[in-house]
Amino acid sequence: MGAILDFIVNTLGGLWSDSGLNVLFSDGGWKNLVMILISFVFMYLAIAKEFEPLLLLPISFGMLLTNLPMANMYHPDLWVLVDGHVDYGKVLVDGGLLDILYLGVKLQLYPPLIFLGIGCMTDFSPLIANPKSFLLGAAAQGGIFCTFVAAGLLGFTAAEAGSIAIIGGADGPTAIYVSTKLLSGDGAITTGNIALAAYTYMALVPIIQPPIMRAMTTKKERAVKMEQLRVVSKTEKIIFPIAVTLIVSLLVPSAAPLVGMLMFGNLLKESGVAARLIDTAQNALMNIITIFLGVSVGATTQAEQIINLKFGGVMLLGVIAFSLGTACGLIFGKIMYIATKGKVNPLIGSAGVSAVPMAARISQKVGAETDPTNFLLMHAMGPNVAGVIGSAVAAGVLLSVIG
Amino acid sequence: MNMTLMMLAEKVLKGTEKLSGIEITSMTVVGLGVVFGALLILVCFLYLSGGIFKRMGAQKKNAPAAPAAPAKVKTAPAKAIAAAPAASTGDEDEIIAVITAAIAAMSAADGKAYRLHSVKPVSRGGNGRSAWAQAGIHDATRPF
After folding, report:
1. Confidence (pTM)
2. In a domain, B97, yes or no
3. Which residues of A304-325 are buried (b: 16+ CB within 10 A; e: fewer)?
4. Domains identified in chain B, total number
5. Cβ-Cβ contacts under 8 Å, A157 against chain B
6. Contact between chains at A158 and B14 (C-beta distance less than 8 A)
7. How do residues A110-119 score in pLDDT, each as one tens digit?
8. Predicted-complex ipTM score
9. Among the listed residues A342, A384, A387, A343, the one whose alpha carbon sits nearest the alpha carbon of residue A363
10. Is the same domain home to B86 and B44?
C-alpha cells in the first residue's frame, strides 16, 4: 500500500515538475505570465476594439503560444548565427512548428508576398491624378530619419537604430523586412520587438494622429475643400507600376523586392487580364501569408526579449517615430497650402505615413469634424499610397548603407 | 560631404557599431535626400505622362466630332420623333439615334406612335453621387 502511495506521489511530483505551471510559478516564470497577460490585451484590442484584427490576432496568439512554458514551439537558440549564418538544416530537423513558419520571415519571403497582395488591392489613381502627393509621402518619411538620429544619440548600434527608425514608416511588412535583414537575431533587439512596436502603433493610429493634426493646423486650414481629381486613363494606370518599378529599382536596388512586388500586384490588377491571379494574390495567398507572418512574428516575442529596458526604448522611440512622421507630413502639407494659396488641405499630409487606408481615413475624419461636407478621403489616399512607396525607398536606403 | 558621397557608394555603417555624430547627420541627409529625389523623379514622370495623355485625349475628342454630324441624318422609318433639347452634341447624337431606333422598333411592333421629348442627366439629390457612391463614402467615413 505504501509502495503504491509512493509511486503515485512520485508520478504526480514528476508531472508537476514537467508542467508549465511549475515553471510559471518558479524563478523568472512571472515574466511568461506577464507576456501571456499582454497577449490577452492584444487579443482584446483585436476582437473587441477591432484594431488591425487580421494581424493583431495572429501576433497575439503567437505570443501566447511562445510564452507557454515547456511547450517548446519556438526555439530562439536555433536562430543564433554560426559563422555568420543560420544553420537552416538544424532548424528543419530540430525546429517546432513556429520555427518552420518563421523561416519565411528570416528568409524575407513574407513581406514581399504581402506587398504583392497589397498591390492587387491598391488603386493608385489618386496619386496619378495628383502627382504632388508623392512629396507628402516623402515628407512623412522624415519621421524615420529623425528617429534614426534619436536612436543613434541614445547609443543604439547602426542596425538597431535603422530597425527602430523604420517603425516610423508605419508599414508592418517593411519594418519586418528591414529588421530581419539588419538584426542578427541574438542581440538585445529582435525582429519580434520591432514588429510588435510597429503593429501596436499602427493599430493605435486613430488615437496617436488626431491630436497632432488638430494641434498643428488651424480651423481655416482644416476647412479647405480640394478640387475634384481628374479621371485617370487605363493606359496611365498600366504604365505607372512599370515606371515606378524601373525608376525606384534603378535608383535604390535594395528597395526592389518590396517595390517590385507591390507594383507587380498592381500591374496584375490594372491589366484586367489576370483575374484568377489577382483573386489568389489578394485573397488566398495574402491570407495564408498573413497568418504565417503574424503567428511566427508573435512567436519571437518571448518574455526575455520583451521584458527589458531596451524594448522600453524601442516602444518609446517607436511612438516618437510615428508622431514625427505625422508632423513632417503636416508641415509639408502646410507648405503646399501656402504655395498653392490655400488649395491644398494640410490634413492630407499626415496620410503620408503609409498605414493604408487608416491614415487617409483619419485625415477624412479630422477634416469632417470642421466641415462635415468636406470629403478629403480620395485626396488623402494619394499621399497614403505614396507613403508605401516612400517607406520602401527609405528601407532600401537603410539596407544599402547599413551593412 | 565626402562621407555623404561614400554612403551612396557602399555600405559604410557597420551594423554592430555605435554611431558617431557625423555618421548620424550624413545618414539623415542621404536618406531624406534619396527619398525626396526618387519621389521627385516620379512626380516629374507623372506630370510628363499626364500631360501627354491629356493632349492625346483632347485630340481624340476633337477628331470624331466632324464625321459625327452626317450620322445624325439616319432616321427611323416609324413616326418616332427625337427632340432632345438637353443633350445633342458629339457622341451623344449617336446614343440618341440608338434610343430613337429602339423606340421606332417598339412603335413598329405595336403600331402606336411614340415621341421622345428629352434626354437629361439623372439628378442624384443634388450632390452628383449615385446611391452606391454615397454608400461607399458613408462606409469609409463613418466614425471610428
Report:
1. 0.79
2. yes
3. ebbbeebbebbbebbbbbbbbb
4. 2
5. 15-19
6. yes
7. 999 999 999 9
8. 0.86
9. A384
10. no
